[in-house]
From TrEMBL:
It comes from the Bacteria. Heterodimer of SbcC and SbcD. InterPro entries: Calcineurin-like_PHP (IPR004843), DNA_Repair-Maintenance_Comp (IPR050535), Metallo-depent_PP-like (IPR029052), Mre11_N (IPR041796), SbcD (IPR004593). GO terms for biological process: DNA recombination; DNA replication. Residues 1-252 form the Calcineurin-like phosphoesterase domain. Keywords: DNA recombination, DNA replication, Endonuclease, Exonuclease, Hydrolase, Nuclease. SbcCD cleaves DNA hairpin structures. These structures can inhibit DNA replication and are intermediates in certain DNA recombination reactions. The complex acts as a 3'->5' double strand exonuclease that can open hairpins. It also has a 5' single-strand endonuclease activity. This is Nuclease SbcCD subunit D. GO terms for molecular function: 3'-5' exonuclease activity; endonuclease activity.
């Protein structure tokens, strides 16, 4: 049986003001082609289908079109089985809209209550159980999971003997680890029962989480709770699962889950899963730039070949082969450039002038028309970060001291000294003085031209404060 694992499509995401929808469309059309040519039996999408809980009309239109094609695909004479779960960017309710009306081969798994119940796929006599966890927000999912572990008539899905308090409750910590551990109780409990009946059952867990040991990028949304954003990899050891289809982190990467001694692990099944982050569909931050730069930014999907019958015989893992395929999105190469002005405008521009670039320019002076000169050399200079090298280290400490500064000119000349490492020249001082004067006279005009500076209209926040004080008085 062949499974394709992908995640983090983020349909509708923009990058530095650029609408990425056309590249996303290209990537998803490529995906449809691959499912056909590689004869994929099962498609797993592990969260962050949309970039937003309230996707735009255009984003919904793109997804619906792709979704309709996928839902109608036939591979090897059977319909393509499709399993989606929501990520931390999706709204589970919106993504799950219409789930009940869908075709039997389309599975939108958005309910926490259903995590202990896999989608079971049968292809040519082979059976695969896919457990699909939606993104588990510690605060939102904890009460639901608590109910599932306690159960009204005894525990519904707790694995093994759990430590329970006097009232029989399993304590779930308010953390990603706490809720993932609770969810895994349900998954492993159900899987152990099914394996007892059918040893030749392959099992995959789809999860949207940050598993420690993996490498994040700049384009995932922070999910830390109590300062912790990850779950330990050891939670998945000896769980009986064959593969973890992970979503959330945008870099495609392998993750090693070490098999543990029975005494050290929470679960005691014979198999420990292989695990991968498929990575996002496109690059969504400069931190995902490849070296050397590459169109498509090295994003990929995972192809998984399973052989559950052989695994049952040998007692090993059902994953026979794992391959990755580069996403053909045509997304321009992301490049991070760092150099002096001469380098940036010279050799680097010749090489990366057509790419999507983030440029750090090392400067000792502010050159005239800096941004225009860069834009003339680069078609897509999406980030420009001038960095001033202060030549005299002591100058860095002479940034205007607000306690001793007596007027605006003190502050401004202090800033010039700080950023350029020298005193302002006379012509610069006169420009600054004129600017200060202009602001002062504007203030007087706003106050009706007759008032003093103290009577000028205050900023909104200050105005509100004064009003409040007035009422209190
Ligand atoms: Mn994501």
């Amino acid at each position: 049986m062949r499974v394709l694992h992908t995640s983090d499509w983020h349909i509708g995401r923009r990058f530095k003001g650029i609408d990425l929808l056309e590249w996303q469309r290209k990537a998803l059309e490529w995906l449809i082609g691959i499912i056909g040519s590689e004869q994929v039996d099962v498609l797993c999408v592990a969260g962050d289908v949309y970039d937003s809980p309230r996707p735009s009309t255009e984003a919904v239109r793109l997804f619906n079109g792709i979704f309709a094609t996928l839902g109608n695909m036939e591979v090897n004479g059977h319909p393509l089985e499709i399993i989606f779960t929501p990520g931390n960017h999706d709204s589970a309710d919106r993504l799950g809209t219409g789930a009940a009306l869908m075709r039997p081969n389309v599975h939108m798994r958005c309910d926490i209550e259903a995590i202990g119940e896999p989608v079971v796929v049968t292809v040519g006599g082979e059976k695969l159980a896919v457990y699909a966890l939606p993104y588990l927000d510690p605060d939102l999912s904890r009460p639901v999971l608590q109910g599932m572990l306690d159960g009204r008539d005894g525990p519904l899905c707790a694995y093994d003997e759990q430590e329970r308090d006097e009232d029989g409750h399993v304590h779930i910590a308010r953390s990603h680890e706490g809720v993932m551990k609770a969810a895994m109780q349900c998954v492993v409990n159900d899987l152990a029962k099914r394996r007892a009946e059918n040893p030749a059952l392959a099992a995959i867990l789809m999860a949207h989480a940050f598993v420690s040991g993996a490498q994040p990028s700049d384009s995932e949304r922070n999910i830390s709770v109590g300062g912790v954003d990850s779950v330990p990899a050891a939670l998945f050891a000896n769980s009986g699962l064959d593969y973890l289809a992970l979503g959330h982190l945008h870099r495609p990467q392998n993750l090693t889950i070490a098999q543990l001694d029975r005494s050290e692990s929470i679960f005691h099944e014979s198999r420990t899963p292989q695990a991968r982050y498929s990575g996002s569909l496109l690059a969504y931050s400069f931190s995902e730039a490849r070296t050397p730069p590459a169109v498509g930014n090295g994003k990929s999907v995972v192809l998984l070949d399973l052989d559950a019958a052989r695994a049952a015989e040998t007692g090993g893992n059902a994953v026979r082969a794992i391959r990755t395929l580069d996403v053909q999105s045509g997304e321009p190469a992301f490049v991070q450039i760092d150099g002096t002005l001469d380098e940036v405008l010279g050799p680097l521009a010749d090489e990366y002038g057509e790419d999507w670039v983030s440029i750090t320019i090392r400067l000792s002076e502010y050159p005239h028309g800096l941004y225009q000169r860069i834009d003339a050399k680069y078609a897509h200079a999406l980030e420009k970060n001038p960095v001033y090298t202060v030549r005299d280290a002591s100058a860095a400490r002479t940034m205007a001291d607000m306690r001793t500064a007596t007027d605006e000119m003190d502050v401004l000349t202090g800033f010039v000294r700080y950023s350029l490492g020298r005193e302002a020249r006379d012509d610069e001082r006169s420009v600054l003085a004129k600017a200060v004067e202009a602001v002062r006279s504007q203030g007087t005009e706003h106050a009706g031209g007759t008032g003093t500076r103290e009577q000028t209209k205050p900023a909104r926040g200050i105005a509100g404060m004064q009003q409040k004080e007035g009422r209190e008085r």
